[in-house]
């Protein structure tokens, strides 16, 4: 039986949804019939518009899409101004106030507290500078990811910018392919550090080399069926296919078409490509792709460059780039400067200030990474030091403490209906507490800690040195927010997912567990050993003993909320404010 969401899409989907959304916006939120809201909210996602969680009726999240994390001059400023003027709710976040942007793990941006009535004006402002939210959600191809410094990196093997733009225009932009069985992720990297994270995408192209007609040719090997979530993550599997730059577009489009036609549209819990590959195998997919979806013979895989992967790979910093923070020389003699935005949340005024700095010191272009951080590019060598002394870079440092540097978090219960716990503010408080209370060896410059509010794992907990997954538990007879604690994840040459060594730790005891674990790492590691390497060498039983939860001086911002309130930081006065705001909409 076809899933009900397929019926929603059969009735109306793709670009036609936009027209109906604008009509509802003109008439007001209440014009959406109560018994049709599930269907309309599902369709709105194609336009990048997501209704927020229960209790936040009439408020929406808007996700933007910008291929490969590129924001052209003027685009970040427009986004920041939209956040300042429109992305405000009835309650201030205790960490971030009211009006901010969220940088995502797919190199894009999300805005919250958007009112339906304001969406046409927001689109007009954003689209005037080339920013769109089209197909940023729903059963579509999501933001295409790649090396955040494509075209500028010194050790780049292939400049992928032209190919990325073609993917964006001719595959994501094709209305005939917008209705996928489920969301679909594409990545491509021309740098040898693995920053596109091909291993957790539905299809990923990784740099490789193959001898063709007696000549060594640089191109890409193809992997398919990677993804996180549902306690069933998968590493993308090699398709045993090498493509040249000229062939890459046809193979990617061919696989998109193949999955579009053959993917399961009945059981949504099992219709991501990782399960599709489980079911059919790579040989079947390769044979069908060659027979029906491309018009040339597929070559076997070339020699990949995975041994050079350093991005979130748990390798020593001297091996190569692991997050793009700090100052780096470009291939044209200019520099790029990556700055840290803890858990990816940037206040609107800071976003505008960042855009100003990009104009003042660089070309105005800003790039986004998969670690929720921005990069200012094209900085003249003579002005790098001046940029580093700007006040914004004192707040968001290019070289922060390892705890702050490695932190990522998903949206959490603040807005997400799937999450079990609050993530962003909690992680920000936790990172500061760890920074101030745990001493790391001088040579440990990175420690990746990722927080996801549920098993969907939008915060990439499964790929972290230390992964936190939202749960609930009982403490002193009361239901509280809690986490599962996992260790030993990472991407790199040999991707691995965390092993969850502690379950349902009350959130106020989690920093104590992490402190105990990290202090044991600092005390017992071999010289130069990274956390991931130490975890691999230590073994599960010892790690469990070394990560004993305990209460500390850490004060949790919403321990007892346990998703009972409409907003984790609301009080009785705020409840009244929310009701009044909704009534006025």
UniProtKB/TrEMBL annotation:
Keywords: 4Fe-4S, Heme, Iron, Iron-sulfur, Metal-binding, Oxidoreductase. SUPFAM superfamilies: Nitrite and sulphite reductase 4Fe-4S domain-like, Nitrite/Sulfite reductase N-terminal domain-like. Residues 56-90, 95-128, 328-388 form the Nitrite/Sulfite reductase ferredoxin-like domain. GO terms for molecular function: 4 iron, 4 sulfur cluster binding; heme binding; metal ion binding; oxidoreductase activity. Residues 138-292, 404-548 form the Nitrite/sulphite reductase 4Fe-4S domain. Gene3D superfamilies: 3.90.480.20, Sulfite Reductase Hemoprotein, domain 1. Belongs to the nitrite and sulfite reductase 4Fe-4S domain family. This is Ferredoxin--nitrite reductase.
């Amino acid at each position: 039986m076809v899933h009900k969401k397929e019926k929603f899409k059969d009735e109306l989907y793709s670009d036609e949804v936009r027209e109906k959304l604008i009509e509802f916006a003109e008439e007001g939120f209440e014009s959406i019939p109560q018994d049709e809201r599930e269907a309309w909210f599902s369709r709105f996602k194609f336009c990048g518009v997501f209704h927020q969680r229960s209790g936040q009726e009439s408020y929406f999240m808007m996700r933007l899409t910008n291929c490969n994390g590129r924001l052209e001059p003027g685009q970040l400023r427009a986004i920041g101004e939209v956040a300042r003027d429109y992305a405000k709710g009835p309650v201030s976040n205790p960490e971030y106030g009211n009006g901010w942007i969220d940088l995502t793990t797919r190199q894009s941006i999300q805005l919250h507290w958007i009112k339906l009535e304001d969406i046409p004006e927001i689109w007009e402002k954003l689209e005037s500078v080339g920013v769109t939210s089209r197909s940023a959600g729903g059963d579509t191809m999501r933001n295409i990811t790649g090396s955040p410094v494509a075209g500028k990196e010194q050790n780049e093997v292939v400049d992928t910018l032209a190919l990325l733009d073609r993917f964006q225009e001719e595959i994501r932009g094709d209305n005939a392919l917008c209705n996928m069985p489920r969301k679909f992720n594409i990545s491509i990297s021309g740098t040898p550090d693995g920053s596109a994270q091909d291993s957790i995408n539905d299809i990923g192209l990784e740099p490789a080399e193959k001898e063709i007609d007696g000549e060594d040719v640089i191109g890409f090997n193809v992997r398919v069926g990677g993804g996180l979530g549902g306690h069933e993550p998968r590493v993308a599997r090699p398709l045993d296919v090498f493509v040249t730059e000229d062939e890459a577009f046809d193979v990617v489009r061919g696989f998109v078409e193949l999955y579009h036609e053959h993917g399961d549209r009945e059981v949504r819990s099992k219709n991501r490509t990782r399960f599709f590959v489980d079911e059919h195998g790579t040989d079947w997919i390769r044979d069908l792709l060659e027979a029906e979806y491309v018009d040339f013979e597929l070559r076997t895989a070339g020699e990949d460059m995975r041994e050079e992967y350093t991005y979130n790979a748990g390798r020593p910093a001297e091996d190569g780039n692991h997050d793009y923070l700090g100052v780096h020389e470009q291939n044209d003699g200019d520099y790029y400067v990556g700055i840290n935005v803890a858990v990816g949340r940037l206040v609107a005024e800071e976003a505008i200030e960042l855009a100003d700095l990009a104009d003042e010191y660089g070309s105005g272009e800003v790039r986004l990474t998969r670690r929720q951080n921005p990069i200012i590019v094209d900085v003249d060598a003579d002005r790098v030091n001046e940029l580093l002394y700007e006040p914004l870079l004192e707040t968001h440092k290019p070289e922060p403490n390892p705890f702050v540097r490695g932190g990522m978090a998903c949206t959490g219960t603040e807005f997400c209906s799937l999450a079990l716990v609050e993530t962003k503010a909690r992680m920000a408080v936790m990172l500061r507490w760890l920074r101030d209370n745990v001493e790391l060896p001088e040579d440990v410059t990175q420690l990746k800690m990722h927080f996801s509010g549920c098993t969907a794992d939008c915060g990439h907990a499964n790929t972290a040195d230390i992964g936190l997954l939202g749960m609930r538990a009982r403490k002193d007879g009361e239901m509280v927010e809690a986490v599962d604690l996992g260790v030993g994840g990472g991407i790199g040459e040999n991707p691995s997912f965390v092993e969850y060594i502690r379950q349902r730790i009350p959130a106020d005891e989690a920093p104590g567990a992490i402190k105990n674990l990290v202090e044991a790492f600092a005390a017992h590691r071999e010289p130069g050993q990274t956390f991931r390497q130490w975890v691999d060498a230590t073994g599960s039983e010892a790690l469990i003993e070394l990560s004993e939860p305990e209460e500390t001086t850490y004060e949790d911002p919403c321990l007892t909320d346990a998703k009972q309130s409409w907003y984790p930081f609301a009080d009785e006065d705020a409840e009244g404010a929310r009701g009044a705001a909704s009534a006025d909409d």
